[in-house]
Write a structure and sequence with these properties.
The complex is a heterodimer of chains A (414) and B (301). Chain A has 414 residues and is of the alpha+beta class. Chain A folds into three domains: 207 residues, Rossmann fold (3-Layer(aba) Sandwich), CATH 3.40.50; 84 residues, Beta Barrel (Elongation Factor Tu (Ef-tu), domain 3), CATH 2.40.30; 104 residues, Beta Barrel (Elongation Factor Tu (Ef-tu), domain 3). In chain A, 19% of the residues lie in helices and 35% in strands. In chain A, helix 5 runs parallel beside helix 6. Chain A is globular. Chain A starts with a strand and ends with a strand. Chain B has 301 residues and is α/β, with parallel strands linked by helices. Chain B folds into two domains: 196 residues, Rossmann fold (3-Layer(aba) Sandwich); 81 residues, no CATH class. In chain B, strands 3-2-1-4-6-5 form a six-stranded mixed beta sheet, sandwiched between helices. Chain B has a four-stranded antiparallel beta sheet with strand order 8-7-9-10, with no helix packed on it. In chain B, helix 1 packs across helix 2. The longest helix of chain B is centred in the N-terminal third of the chain and has 19 residues. Chain B starts with 7 loop residues before the first helix and ends with a helix. Classes of the chains: A alpha+beta (414), B alpha/beta (301). Chains A and B meet through helix 2, helix 4, strand 2, strand 3 and helix 5 of A and helix 1 and helix 2 of B.
C-alpha cells in the first residue's frame, strides 16, 4: 500500500464538499458518531438536508459563517491505497490556499459544474496546478444529473477544457470524468446512467494512477538537517549526517561532494536503528557516515560528485504572495530553502500573471495577496538548488517577513 | 529502473523523523509531551530512531492530572527507562494546591481542561520553545486544520484563523521571545496507521489497550471505569465487563469500549470494523461542538 496525496479545487457550490463527503462515506471513513454530530448540527442550523460540509468545516468561525477558511486535511483508505486530501476553500484566499494544498499533492481534482462549463475559476485552478507541477489532473464534470446525463454537454466541456489546457506547459496527464457527486455516479462505481462514458470511475483512477515518478531518482541530493554525535563509549567516533533525501540514490562507496565547501569524500554507511541500508532514496530520512572526517553542518548539501546542482546568489523564480501586507518594493526577507535560511532581496519584479487570461503584465513593482508572478532575487549566501521543474524539494523556497516572522510568499525557482 | 516506491508506513515514518529532526534543529529548547497514550508512545519511538545512536536531544514531559490509571504510570516509568530519556513531570495537583487553577465541580468534573494551565506553566518555567505533541489530523475536526509547526503566542494561544501557510517540507519555526510552537510529527497518521505501525515496530503498549475485565458504569454515553477519582451516582449501575480503552487520558473522562481484542492483530481488526471514532469515548470532546477548538485556542495539547 502506498499514499496518494491529492487536492480538490472548485468554486462555490460546485459540490466539492459533497464529493469529499461521498468519497469518505463510501469508503466507510465517516464514522457514525461523526455523522450523528453533523446531523445534529445541521438540524440545529435549520439546514434542509444533512450538510456534509460540516464534516470538513471544523472551526467555529467556519461553521458560523458557512465558509471554509483554511486548508483542512482528510484521510481515507481503500485496500489499495491510503489517501490524503488537502481540502482547500473555493473562494476566500483561494489562490494562497490552493497553492499550499498543491505543494504536496500528486494529483488535483478540479470540479466543473456541468451547467456552467469551464469558467474563470477552472482556469485559475488549472494554472495553479500547472505552476506547482502537479503531475496528474482530474477534471470532474459534476452535476451530470442536472443536465440529464447528456453526453453532448460533457463533450462540449471536455473540448473547451482541452483547448485551454493546451496553453499550459506542464500538466502531464489530464483525465476528464462525468460525475454526479450527489447521486454517486462514477464516483466509486461506474454509473449505468452514462453508458457512453468508457473511462474509469473517479475512485478507481485515484487507486491506480501511477505516482512512482513523483520523486527525482536521478540527481542525488541530501540537504543536511542535523549532525549526530553520540559521544558515548560505544559510538565514540561516530559522526552521522542526517537528512531527508531530496533526490537520486545514495549507496555506500559513492563519491560525493559537500556543498558549498566543495570537499569530496565517499559514503561509508547508511545507518538506521535497525541496521545498515544498501541504498537511500527520496523521500527517505537517513543518516550517512563518510570515509573522511570533514566539516559538514546543517544547511550543507551532499551531492554526487559527477552531478552537481546549481549554485548561485542570483535566482529567477515564480512566486505567489500570501500576506495581507503587500511586498515592499525591493524588500528584504528571510528566505528558507531546503535546510538553510538566508537574507534575500527582491531585485526585480519581472511581471505579474493575470491568472484569468494567463497574460503577463509587466510594469508592476509589488505583489499583493494572491498575486503570482516572476521575480529576480539576490541572496546573501549562494543557494544550492535545482530548477523546480526538475526537483520540487531543491527548487522551492518560502519568504518570511523578518519582523513579523509571517510566511509571506512561496517561490519556485526557474 | 528499480522500484523506488515507499510503503505508506515508510513514508509516514520518514516524514515524522524529518519533522522531529527539524524541531531539534530549529528550536533552542524543545520538549516532547508524553501522556503514556499510544500516539505519544509512537512519537517517542520515532524520536529514538531519528537521533539514534545518540540520545534524543530533548526531555519527555508528562502533564500529570493525578487521575491516572495506575497502569499508565507503571508503563511510563518502564518505557522512559528503556529509552534512556529524561522525564519531567508537571503536576496538575500542584497547580491546584498553589491556587493557579480551581478543581471543577459537579458530577462531570474532570481535570482534563485544567491540564492547560499546568502545561503552559511548565513550558514557561522551563522556557521550552517547542513542544512535540502526538496529535493527529484525523482525530478531530479542529485538529484537521493543524500545521506540523503550529505557532502559539506569548499566552500559549492558538489562532486557527491566522495560521502560517505550510508548503512542501519547509517549516517556518521563527518566533519572538516568549512565543512557542507545538509540533505534530504524526499529523498524517490515522488511527489505523498508528496501530499498523505499532504492529510493525513491535512497540510494547500499556495493558489498558488490551481487553481485560473491569468494573464500569455508563455515563453520558460513555463506559467509565470505577476508580478513586469518580463517584458512582445513584441510578448508575456498576457492571463487570470485558473492555479495553481506545484512547488513554484522564481517568475521569476516558471511556472504555466493550471488546475482546487481546492482541494487536485483534485490535487492528476491531479498528477496521469500527463505526465510531476513537475520541467518541472521550467526554472532554463532547462538552460542545467546538470543545477541542476552544481548548486548543487556550493552549491545550
Amino acid at each position: 500500500m502506498d499514499i496518494l496525496r491529492f487536492t480538490t479545487a472548485g468554486s462555490v457550490d460546485d459540490g466539492k464538499s459533497t464529493l469529499i463527503g461521498r468519497l469518505l462515506y463510501d469508503s466507510k471513513s465517516i464514522f457514525e458518531d461523526q455523522l450523528a454530530a453533523v446531523e445534529e448540527s445541521s438540524r440545529r442550523r435549520g439546514d434542509a438536508v444533512v450538510n456534509l460540509a460540516l464534516l470538513t468545516d471544523g472551526l467555529k468561525a467556519e461553521r458560523e459563517q458557512g465558509i471554509t477558511i483554511d486548508v483542512a486535511y482528510r484521510y481515507f483508505a481503500t485496500p489499495r491505497r491510503k489517501f490524503i486530501i488537502a481540502d482547500t476553500p473555493g473562494h476566500i484566499q483561494y489562490t494562497r490556499n490552493m497553492v499550499t494544498g498543491a505543494s504536496t499533492a500528486n494529483l488535483a481534482i478540479i470540479l466543473v459544474d456541468a451547467r456552467k462549463g469551464v469558467i474563470e475559476q477552472t482556469k485559475r485552478h488549472s494554472f495553479i496546478a500547472d505552476l506547482l507541477r502537479i503531475q496528474h489532473v482530474v477534471v470532474a464534470v459534476n452535476k451530470m444529473d442536472l443536465v440529464d446525463y447528456d453526453q453532448a454537454v460533457y463533450d462540449g466541456i471536455v473540448e473547451e477544457y482541452k483547448a485551454f489546457a493546451s496553453r499550459l506547459d506542464n500538466l502531464v496527464e489530464i483525465l476528464t470524468i462525468p460525475i454526479s457527486a450527489l447521486n454517486g455516479d462514477n464516483v466509486v462505481d461506474k454509473s449505468d446512467r452514462m453508458p457512453w462514458y468508457q473511462g474509469p470511475s473517479l475512485l478507481y483512477h485515484l487507486e491506480t494512477v501511477y505516482v512512482g515518478g513523483e520523486h527525482n531518482h536521478v540527481d542525488a541530493r541530501l540537504p543536511v538537517q542535523w549532525v549526530i554525535r553520540p559521544q558515548s563509549n560505544e559510538w565514540h567516533d561516530f559522526r552521522g549526517y542526517t537528512g531527508r533525501v531530496a533526490g537520486g540514490v545514495f549507496k555506500p562507496g559513492d563519491d560525493v561532494t559537500i556543498l558549498p565547501s566543495g570537499f569530496t569524500t565517499q559514503v561509508k554507511e547508511i545507518h538506521t536503528d535497525a541496521g545498515l541500508l544498501p541504498e537511500a532514496f527520496a523521500p527517505q530520512s537517513v543518516t550517512l557516515t563518510f570515509a573522511n572526517e570533514i566539516d559538514i553542518s546543517r544547511g550543507d548539501m551532499i551531492v554526487k560528485a559527477n552531478n552537481p546542482p546549481l549554485v548561485s546568489q542570483d535566482i529567477e523564480a515564480m512566486i505567489c504572495w500570501f500576506s495581507q501586507t503587500p511586498m515592499a518594493e525591493r524588500g528584504k526577507y528571510v528566505l528558507r530553502h531546503t535546510t538553510r535560511e538566508t537574507q534575500a532581496a527582491i531585485q526585480h519584479v519581472r511581471y505579474l500573471v493575470d491568472i484569468d487570461t494567463l497574460h503577463k503584465v509587466e510594469g508592476g513593482r509589488s505583489f499583493a495577496m494572491n498575486d503570482i508572478g516572476r521575480v529576480g532575487i539576490r541572496t546573501a549566501v549562494p543557494l544550492i538548488h535545482d530548477a523546480y521543474r526538475r526537483n520540487r524539494i531543491t527548487g522551492s523556497f518560502i519568504l518570511i517577513h523578518p519582523g513579523s516572522n509571517e510566511t509571506v510568499a512561496a517561490g519556485m525557482i526557474l | 529502473m528499480p522500484d523506488y516506491n515507499l510503503s505508506h508506513l515508510d513514508q509516514l515514518e520518514a516524514e515524522a523523523i524529518y519533522v522531529l529532526r527539524e524541531t531539534a534543529a530549529q528550536f533552542r529548547k524543545p520538549a516532547l509531551l508524553f501522556s503514556g497514550g499510544k500516539d505519544s508512545i509512537v512519537m517517542a519511538h520515532l524520536a529514538r530512531k531519528a537521533f539514534w545512536p545518540a540520545k534524543m536531544p530533548f526531555p519527555l514531559v508528562h502533564i500529570d492530572t493525578g487521575h491516572n490509571f495506575p497502569e499508565t504510570i507503571a508503563y511510563r516509568d518502564e518505557f522512559v527507562a528503556a529509552l534512556g530519556a529524561e522525564l519531567l513531570v508537571g503536576s496538575v495537583q500542584e497547580s491546584i494546591d498553589a491556587g493557579d487553577v480551581a478543581e471543577e465541580k459537579g458530577v462531570n468534573a474532570s481535570r482534563n481542561k485544567l491540564q492547560t494551565v499546568t502545561l503552559l506553566a511548565t513550558i514557561e518555567a522551563h522556557r521550552y520553545d517547542a513542544c512535540l505533541g502526538g496529535g493527529r489530523r484525523d482525530e478531530e475536526k479542529a485538529r484537521a486544520k493543524e500545521r506540523f509547526f503550529s505557532h502559539r503566542d506569548e499566552f500559549g494561544q492558538w489562532d486557527p484563523k491566522n495560521q502560517r501557510p505550510e508548503l512542501w517540507n519547509l517549516f517556518n519555526g521563527r518566533r519572538h521571545e516568549g512565543e512557542h510552537f507545538r509540533v505534530f510529527p504524526l499529523s498524517n497518521f490515522t488511527e489505523m496507521d498508528v496501530w499498523l505501525y505499532i504492529q510493525r515496530e513491535e512497540i510494547p503498549l500499556p495493558s489498558l489497550y488490551f481487553a481485560h475485565e473491569r468494573d464500569v458504569f455508563a455515563r453520558n454515553g460513555s463506559l467509565l471505569a470505577v476508580t478513586d477519582f469518580v463517584t458512582v451516582q445513584p441510578g448508575e449501575t456498576v457492571e463487570r465487563k470485558l473492555v479495553r480503552f481506545r484512547t488513554i487520558g484522564d481517568a475521569t473522562c476516558t471511556g472504555a469500549v466493550e471488546s475482546a481484542a487481546r492482541t494487536i492483530e485483534e485490535i487492528i481488526e476491531e479498528v477496521a470494523a469500527s463505526r465510531q471514532t476513537e475520541r467518541g469515548t472521550r467526554a472532554d470532546d463532547r462538552r460542545s461542538e467546538t470543545a477541542m477548538e476552544d481548548r486548543k485556542r487556550e493552549g491545550y495539547f
